[in-house]
Write a structure and sequence with these properties.
single chain; six-stranded mixed β-sheet; globular
């Protein structure tokens, strides 16, 4: 489904983010990317959704070379790979419903599709009763649930979550992790980037460990082990 093949990302002689990284992610997997800050986790996810380009190597998504996709096809790629971030990236002047609906409006969906699908995903993340609340009226955990709903509204085959619990307290952290597990059980591939040791060891899923921009370990099930 996803293959990173000999990926390197070099910003300059003093900043090497990734060096010759190769691994695959299979359909329906739940994979955690772990490593210290600066290990290359976020860079790898940005390369997958074509926000950045590698210095060398190839990235395949459903057998298609992401790096050779024309710009007009990138929006379709990003609808197939829903992204969730640490800082939520919600529009402050739009309600929870409007934040999710906006992603569909940009994609040219009809009002009927928007109404049906937005209600569906807000129900999935447990926020149907908060759909008319603005981000300032939501807790950190609820904001992240809106962000996950927005990522899910196009029915992507993959969700990439880059430190999605980094700004949350322990209770909300586990609520979000349980939600990602539920999404995975429904058939969506999940790639979780985190440096939270407790989460990784509790999940007992596949773990790809990055150290100094390289794959140090790839184990299933894996644990959080950094040298």
């Amino acid at each position: 489904m996803i293959r990173f093949e000999n990926i390197s990302k070099i910003y300059n002689s003093h900043s090497v983010a990734l060096k010759d990284v190769t691994f695959e992610v299979n359909p329906h997997e739940f994979v955690s990317l772990v490593g210290r800050s600066g290990a290359g986790k976020s860079t790898l996810l940005k390369l997958l959704i074509a926000e950045e380009k590698p210095t060398s190597g190839k990235i395949f998504f459903n057998r298609q070379n992401v790096l050779k996709m024309p710009n007009r096809e990138l929006p379709f790629l990003r609808r197939q790979i829903g992204a969730v971030f640490q800082d939520f990236k919600l529009l402050p002047n739009k309600t929870a419903y409007e934040n999710v609906a906006f992603a569909m409006e940009v994609a040219g969906k009809s009002e009927r599709e928007i109404k049906n699908d937005v209600s569906r995903v807000l129900d999935l993340v447990g926020l149907k009763d908060k759909m008319n609340n603005f981000p300032r009226e939501l807790s950190g955990g609820e904001k992240q649930r809106v962000a996950i709903a927005r990522a899910m509204v196009h029915r992507p085959s993959v969700i990439v979550a880059d430190e999605p619990t980094g700004n949350l307290d322990p209770i909300n952290t586990w609520d979000i992790i349980r939600l990602l597990l539920k999404i995975n059980e429904l058939g969506t591939t999940v790639i979780l980037a985190t440096h939270d040791k407790e989460i990784i060891n509790a999940l007992e899923r596949r773990v790809v460990s990055l150290e100094n921009g390289t794959v140090a370990r790839d184990e299933n099930p894996g644990r959080y082990i950094l040298s």
